[in-house]
Structures are given as C-alpha cells and as structure tokens.
C-alpha cells in the first residue's frame, strides 16, 4: 500500500472509533433520560391520585367540622 492509502485507512479507523464512542455515549444518555422520564411520570401520576384523594377527604372533614361548629353556635 502507498503512504496515502495507509493514511486514509488510519483516518477511517480513527473516525469509526470516534463515531462508535460518541454513539455509545448518546445511547447511554438517551437511556438515562428515558428512565428518568418514566420514573417522573409514574411519580406524578401517584402524586396526582394521592392529592385528589387527600383533597376529597380533607374537604369532607372540613365540611363536617363546619357543621359541628354551626351546631355549637346555634344550639349551645
């Protein structure tokens, strides 16, 4: 092989190594982002459900508390 062909082959080898390294790091980062996004969505869903149930329970208790307070005011 000539010197030029050796240089071209070497440059191709280096380019392929760099490409594979960059691709690997991008795949790892994409996986991390996907896992984080899925976890955040699951937490948000649980929070929304818990918040809704907690609000309903607190509203009901507040309503009952107000009724007992009114009973104390009007019927001492």
From TrEMBL:
- Which superkingdom does the taxonomy of this entry point to? Eukaryota
Ranges for domain Essential protein Yae1 N-terminal: 32-64
How is this protein named in the record? Essential protein Yae1 N-terminal domain-containing protein
Which organism is this protein's natural source? Answer: Laodelphax striatellus (Small brown planthopper)
